[in-house]
Amino acid sequence: MGSAVKVRDDYSAVELRRLARVTKDVRQSGRLLSIAAFLDGMSRADAARIGGMDRQMLRDWVHRFNAAGPDGLLDQWSAGPTSRLTASSLATTPVNVIAGVFDSASSRAWVRRSPACPALNPEK
What we know:
The chain has 124 residues and is mostly helical. 47% of the residues lie in helices and 0% in strands. It has five helices and no strands.
């Protein structure tokens, strides 16, 4: 059986609760409250339940907390894939769609027809 993960000791449970109260990120707040409960002596399973997670997830967040402090408990979203369009083609795409440049027989299905917009109804 593995040993328990040690939580860094430069933050007390009271300080973590204070940080949880003032943070604007709800997920970070729940993680801070879970770690505070664990520091107060609550079992790992019960402390994890406070933050809406399981014991393993709490363990992972404690590792991130130990490495980066409270800021390590924020979600780290990636920027996503880079655009395949060049800046010039991205700038002209809406103009081309409205003008009907892409309105050929092969791509006609994705051009929206609307009686309110004559630019999208070239046959009228």
